[in-house]
Each structure stands twice: as structure tokens, then as C-alpha cells.
Design a protein that fits this description.
Two copies of one chain form a homodimer. Chain A is of the alpha/beta class. Chain A is 32% helix and 20% strand. The first copy, chain A, is built from 14 helices and 15 strands. An eight-stranded mixed beta sheet of chain A has the order 10-9-11-1-12-13-3-14, with helices on both faces. In chain A, strands 4, 5, 6, 7 and 8 form a five-stranded antiparallel beta sheet that branches. In chain A, helix 3 packs parallel to helix 14 and helix 5 packs across helix 10.
């Protein structure tokens, strides 16, 4: 009988040796009895999410881990953010991440409009009334964030950002990166869109109120991260799987939604350091019988890597390990634990260092690794594999693979 | 001077830990002094025939091991079966595996026509006289088996099976999997073919005789496994090799024949458990000077994996190891021993678990592995390689490689 499959993504778990930790990585330094037990009973290795030395984003990393070729389906972050906030997007549409910003006398003074919290729904309504001569939809999201979707035909995704990523200057005009008709058309529309957002937002009652109470007006929308919505065969079709994702951040949710997965929303799963790890573990436990395959992303490791906080990363790892206890008695399941990329505290950003990986389940060829970490993994029976191999290996182990040939 | 190359494929040798064997695999449990001697003197690793977790068939597996990309040249089993029984097939033709079956009042009562042994040549003659309005050839093979080749232009290979793979119902109409002109044309022809086989076979004297003696008539031909004959550059051309294959089963012979290899027929090499291992070893020995490269497939391991018989698998491994003694004194040769896929007794089918591989020959970078099995291989100097690497590695070692670049 086929078993179920769980892939736990410890976002940014992989690290580099840290001088202050006697040359150990945070994961090597942390006390992780549960991870080590799974490593000891399982098979271990290291995993290049995309390829050795290639630095994955969370989006491209999860795409690879779900078996998609990011070089084929990824042209920008926009579509994944759009799907992540629940928008129905269709292949060929162009999506942008956006910020509400503040512009005064032609110069940006705040790229986040004072992290505006209220009134963006009304502002979005006004924006959607703009007559652009082209079909579009703008959707506000959390705080100053939003998503713009261009829906017409013959649009390109390879255009530069309107958002200049700094203040004190004007916004940029989007320009085609590759000079062709499609990219030109997109650039023209998005530039016109930006110009008109200033027109309709500047005198909007919400903004008048903001100015009166001393807050920066949200009087421009700044698109960035253009991408074409990809054609992705859902996992139900290309792997025959009923599958679901648990993730705190919209970007990862969006990748999983575009892979046709259900999204399991867990109260308290925030994608932050305050995320409710116990709730996540219990959410996995209560849903794993419902699904052939669940992927769960825990983000905190990555945040602490970005901030270079090795002690806090150790602490968060140990906290995770404690909560992992809730899953230790699961039966009839293959569990993989790995990262979507490394986020070394020495780099304070993503890196292409491979992530450790363990696979636990009844019929794995158990090896003699007894610890889950970057260097123990190199001695394991899995060797060095690719992110795009992970799901196939898991499905094969769980007797859910399909033979290619006769 | 260049050495000769031998690749021994122990079909389905790889396995998973078996509870009843104290968590060892059959290969780990078996006493294999000859394999272990070659492992000790050689270099070892594990090998993913196609890619980690991908479950190869015997056909796609051997294609990869001969350096072909199965995703490029494999559309179905038919052409390899056709070539395997010695038919001359040409790129673009569509080939099907077929069974003689028994149909009564529109319902299949036997998918193998009582495993008919005699008279199929005459039945095939009648079938080949059918006026189909399209060029075709039907060739009977062992017992109830046969092959159908459609020879016209503009034919597609992506059609469903006529053979319903069960009895008590009618046969299926072949349908295009992808709806295009080419597949439609193939489906129409093969459906018409099936219908007409019932017409010409039902009153055939051979079948009247069978009915009179209480045997089920062979009164329908059931095509399945459609595939387009691929364009494959022969090994003589793309690797400059005079090469030959030894194999018990037509499918593997067919892959090798389409790779332009000679087929060495060895009396007693059956592809079954009764195969004459000594004759195979002696056949290799007496032919290895004639050929730059020989590949030999021994099937028994796979059969016992399919049946879940771990004790018998151990015994067959030990029997093979004993006969391997005949090759231990070969000189000026590089020998690789591996599988085309795993067939774990716990899975009772093919799996994507990597196969162990050893390479033995004068100039290999000998490692410290001293046993040939799934887990010892993971500690070896070869690491984890792909099936498509194997022949290149062997040719390079044997000083038969060609430099790419200057």
C-alpha cells in the first residue's frame, strides 16, 4: 500500500561555519534530539535546490522542490505573490508586486506610505476605476502591499521595475529589458497605470484624511517584479497527487497554489519568529491522512540568517526540534526534512550552499549518519541530490511512483 | 592500447532493507566472494539509471545505460519488442505488442487464447491478407504473442491500448491520448485491424480444430504498447564501437538491436530462472575479443523481486556469483556490474532506488569498498552517477573515449 509523503522545508536552515561558534554552523551547534533521531533512523544527504552554487529564492526554490523547472516557469515574482493572496491568475497574464507609496512634488518620500494599514480597499477601488485602455486588476494586500495584473493579449514580462527602491528621487519608467513588441506594450501600460494612480489617489478622501492627521498619503502605486503567469501542470495531473501546503508567507503559498495544491491555513502560522510551531505540527498531523502529499514551510530560520543572528538561529532550531516531537509517532509516512536554500548568518542572505536533507520512513536504506546537519549529511547514503529529485525520490519510496517504460 | 568493455546488467538487483533479513537487502545478505573481490579491486558507487526516484522500465533503463535519452527515443514498448523478435523496423513506423486472444459473443474470455503454442504462423498469414487500406505487417512471436507494425506516413504513436487487460468485457477502441491528426489516423487503422482480425480468424481452420479439441480459439488480436520506431544513431557511429548484446528477453534484445548492436544468441540463456548462467559467462568469454563492447543482461533477479521471494533472490545472487568465477581471469578488460533498476522484494515491482555499481579494471581509482551491495556502494569512489554516464566512464577508462574540444 502506498504511504503518504511529508516534506518539511526549514527555510534557510543551511549555514556556514561561524567563527564565534568554534567553526560550527548554528545547526551543528544546536541540540536537536528529534532531528538526530530521524537522521539516525533515516537516510541522509545534501541537496542542491537548483544546482550547486545557484542561489535560490524562496519562489524558485519551492518550484524546484515541487518538481518544476524554475528556468522554465519563473520569469518574476509577481504571479506567485498574486496567487499567494488568493487571486485567480491565468497563464499569459502579467503580474507585478506593488507598494502604495508617497510622492511629493515628483519625488518619492516614502516607498511604503507610512506602512498604511487602513483604507487601502477604498484606494484600490478608485485605482480599478482608472480607464487604461487595457484590461487590468489591482488588488490590495497586507499593509502597503498589493498586486497588479495585466490581462490583455501580447504582453511581455521582461520589463524593469517602476519602484526605484529608494526615496528622494522620482519613480522609474518601466522599460523593456529585451526590446520587443510585447515588453514595450507592457512597459507602456504599466507606466500609464502608475501615472494615473497619482492622479486618482492624490485627492482621494482617504488621503486627505491621512494628510490631516499627519500621515503620509498613499498617493502612488509602485509596481515591481513583473512576471508572466506560468503554465504549470498541477501535481494532481503530473504526479497523480492530492496535495496541500502549509506556509506562512504568501510567496510560498502562491507557488503551491499555482502547482494546484490546496492551502491549509493554520491559525498562528505567521511566517515570522512568533509563528506557532506547535499549531503547525498539529495541523500537519490532523491533515496528513487527508492528503497524499503535504509540504510545510517554516520561515524563521531564514529571517535569523538574514539578520546574522546565530544565537537566535540556534534557539529557533532548538525550538523547532522540540515541536518536531509532535510528529515522531506518525506511521505509514515518508518524511523529508531539508531547506529551500541556505541563509548563512555570515552571508546575511540566501546562498547556494547545499542544504542537509534527511528522509525517514520504513523502507529507506538506513545509513550510519546519526545527526542532522550540513556536514553529517555529506556522509549519508543519499549522496548529493538535486531539489528536483526530492519529490520523485519520496514518491518512489512511498510506492506512489509511476514506471517510465515497461 | 584500448581495452575492451563489458557491462553486466543484473536486472533488478537493487533492493530495500527487508525485515525478515534483519534489515539487510538480499544482496547484502548473500555470500558473493567474486562480486566482493571485484568491488575490493575496483571502484564503487551507486547509479540512478534515469534520475533519482525515477522508476525505469527494462527498456528505458537499457536505453539510458547505452547512452540514449529515453525521454527522446522512447514513446512505447512496441518498437523494441518488434526489433527484439528480429523484425526490420524503420524510424517513423508505429509498432504494437499484441496478444492472440479469445472473444465470444463480443466478450473477451481469454487474453492469451489458452497460451496457444501451435498454428499462429498460419493465423498470422491470414491476418496479413487483411485489406486494411493501409500498409501493415503482423508477426507472430512466442506462444500467444505477436507484433503489429503500421508502415504508412503521418502516423502518431500516442494512442491507448486495444487490449483491455481484463476479460469479461469487450476489447477497447484505441483512442488518441493527444488529440491530433496523426494519432487519430493510427487509432482508426488499429481499430479497423482489430475488427478484421475477428472476421478472418473466427472461421479459420486452425481455430475450428482448436474448438473441436476443446481449446479456446485464437480469434482476435489485441494490440497494446504503441510506440514510434525511434531514430537512434548506432553505437558504431556515435561511439565508434563494434558492440554486441547478450540477453534472454526480446525487449532488451530489441533495445540493443535498435542501438545497432549485434545480438549474440546463447543456447540456454532464457531470461528465466532456469537460464544457463555458465553458458552466458562462457559466451561472454568467447566473444569479448571480437567486440569492443558487450552488454549482458541477466534477468532472474528481477523476476524474484517481482515475486517478493527474498530467499530465492539471495540464492540466485549466489548462483550468479559462483558463475561469475568464469570471468575472474579476463585480462585487458574493464567490467562494470550494476542493474538497470531496482526490483525490491518489498515493492514487488521496479523502483527508483539507485543500483549499486562496481567498475573493475587495471587503471580505476581503487577505493576502500570491499563488498558489492546497495549501501557499500554509497561509500565508494564513484559517488552517485547516472545511467547515461556509465558507458562514457567505461570507454574513457578503456582508452576508447573521444576528446570533446581541443
Amino acid at each position: 500500500m502506498a504511504d503518504n509523503v511529508l516534506i518539511l522545508i526549514l527555510d534557510g536552515i543551511g549555514d556556514r561555519p561561524v567563527k564565534e561558534l568554534d567553526g560550527k554552523t548554528p545547526l551543528e551547534k544546536a541540540k536537536t534530539p528529534n532531528l538526530d533521531k530521524l537522521a539516525e533512523e533515516g537516510i541522509n544527504g545534501i541537496m542542491d535546490t537548483i544546482a550547486p552554487g545557484i542561489i535560490p529564492g524562496s519562489d524558485t526554490g519551492h518550484l524546484a522542490l515541487l518538481g518544476y523547472d524554475p528556468y522554465e516557469v519563473y520569469t518574476g515574482r509577481g504571479p506567485y505573490e498574486a496567487a499567494g493572496i488568493g487571486l485567480e491568475v491565468k497563464p499569459g497574464q502579467i503580474a507585478f508586486r506593488c507598494n502604495f507609496g508617497t510622492i511629493e512634488d515628483g519625488k518619492l518620500t516614502d516607498r511604503r506610505a507610512g506602512r498604511i494599514k487602513e483604507g487601502t480597499e477604498e484606494l484600490a477601488e478608485a485605482v480599478n476605476d482608472i480607464d487604461l485602455g487595457a484590461e487590468f486588476h489591482f488588488q490590495e494586500a497586507v499593509e502597503h502591499r498589493g498586486v497588479l495584473i495585466l490581462k490583455g493579449q501580447g504582453l511581455g514580462a521582461d520589463v524593469t521595475d517602476v519602484d526605484p527602491h529608494e526615496t528622494g528621487i522620482s519613480y522609474h519608467e518601466a522599460e523593456p529589458v529585451v526590446d520587443n513588441k510585447e515588453n514595450k506594450k507592457t512597459a507602456e501600460i504599466v507606466n500609464e497605470f502608475t501615472k494615473k494612480t497619482v492622479e486618482v489617489l492624490s485627492d482621494h478622501p482617504i488621503n486627505k484624511k491621512r494628510i490631516n492627521s499627519g500621515k503620509p498619503p498613499a498617493n502612488i502605486i509602485l509596481p515591481r517584479g513583473a512576471g508572466a503567469v506560468p503554465q504549470m501542470k498541477p501535481l494532481s495531473e503530473n504526479k497523480g497527487l492530492k496535495s496541500a501546503a502549509i506556509a506562512g508567507i504568501p510567496l510560498v503559498k502562491g507557488v503551491c497554489r499555482l502547482a494546484g495544491m490546496d492551502i491549509i491555513d493554520i491559525e498562528g502560522a505567521t511566517g515570522g519568529l512568533d509563528t506557532d510551531l506547535e499549531a503547525i505540527m498539529k495541523g500537519i498531523k490532523s491533515n496528513i491522512d487527508e492528503y497524499d502529499f503535504i509540504i510545510a514551510n517554516i520561515k524563521g530560520f531564514d529571517l535569523l540568517g538574514h539578520d546574522g543572528l546565530y544565537h537566535d538561529k540556534i534557539k529557533f532550531i532548538e525550538k523547532f526540534d522540540g515541536n518536531l516531537g509532535h510528529l515522531m509517532d506518525l506511521k505509514n509516512i515518508y518524511i523529508a526534512i531539508t531547506g529551500d536554500h541556505s541563509t548563512p548568518v555570515t552571508v546575511k542572505g540566501h546562498s547556494g550552499d547545499p542544504s542537509p536533507i534527511l528522509i525517514h520512513g520504513e523502507e529507506v536504506r538506513q545509513d550510519d549518519v546519526i545527526k542532522f546537519d550540513e556536514r553529517s549529511g555529506t556522509k549519508g547514503g543519499l549522496g548529493r541530490i538535486y531539489g528536483s529529485d526530492v519529490l520523485n525520490v519520496m514518491l518512489d519510496l512511498a510506492k506512489r511512483g509511476e514506471k517510465f517504460g515497461a
